[in-house]
Amino acid sequence: MSCSENKEKKFRDVKPKKESMLKKGIGMVQNYASAVASRGIKNTKADKVTKQLRVLSCFGNTHLGGELPPCQYLERSQTVGKHYCGGCGCGDRKATWLMAEGEEYSKLDHPKLSCPLGMPGFSDYKPSMPDESEDPITRKFYIENIEYEEVTRIPVTIVEKQESEEE
Ligand code: SF4
C-alpha cells in the first residue's frame, strides 16, 4: 500500500517529470537542489543536506512532527520498517530500500540518484512548474520553499559505499 494513501489532500500529487519552467521567487532549497542536480558524479557519497532533502522528498516530515506527507510512490517493503520507491520499477529488495539500518549503505546514499518525479535532492531534480504553487500546492513546491534550517534538522547518517557491497 502506498504510504501517502488516506492522507488529507492538502498536497497535490507531483506529475512525472517534463519540461520545467522558471517561476518567480526561487527559494534557497530550490537553489541548493539545482546546484546538486548540476553536479557531476565525482563524489563517492551523497552529502548530508542532499540526503536530508531526499529523505524529505521520499518520506515527508509527518514522522518528525511536520505536515508534509510521504511521496505518492513510497511503498512499504515486505520487510518490516523498510521502504522502496514504487515509481522506479526496481522492486522490493535490500539494494532498493531507500534507508537501511544505521551504518549500512542504502539507495539514498548513492551520489548520483534519479527520481521519477525529479524531486529535490536527486540528480535529475526539475524545479516545480508555476502552477504547483497554487492551492493545493504540490509536495515539490512545499519542499522548495521550506526553511533551509528545517532541512538541516532532519536526522540522517552519511554512509560511504564499501567495495564489497552489492548493487
Ligand atoms: S525516489 Fe522520488 S518518486 Fe520515489 S519515493 Fe522518493 S521522491 Fe518519491
- Quickly give the structural class: mainly alpha
Mean pLDDT: 83
As a percent range, the share of strand residues is under 5%
Number of domains: 1
* Total E-strand runs: 2
Helix content: 10-25%
> How large is the radius of gyration?
15 Å
The small molecules bound here are: iron/sulfur cluster
List keywords for this structure.
4 helices, binds iron/sulfur cluster, 20% helix, mainly alpha
Describe, in plain words, how this protein is organized in 3D:
The protein is mainly α. The longest helix is centred in the N-terminal third of the chain and has 12 residues, at 48-59. It is built from 4 helices and 2 strands. Helix content is 20%, strand content 4%. A two-stranded antiparallel sheet has the order 1-2. The relative contact order is 0.26. The protein has helices spanning 28-38, 48-59, 139-144, 148-152; strands spanning 74-76, 83-85. The two termini are 25 Å apart. Bound molecules: iron/sulfur cluster (SF4). Residues 57-58, 71, 73-74, 85, 87, 115-117, 119 line the site of iron/sulfur cluster. Iron/sulfur cluster is lined by residues 57-58, 71, 73-74, 85, 87, 115-117, 119.
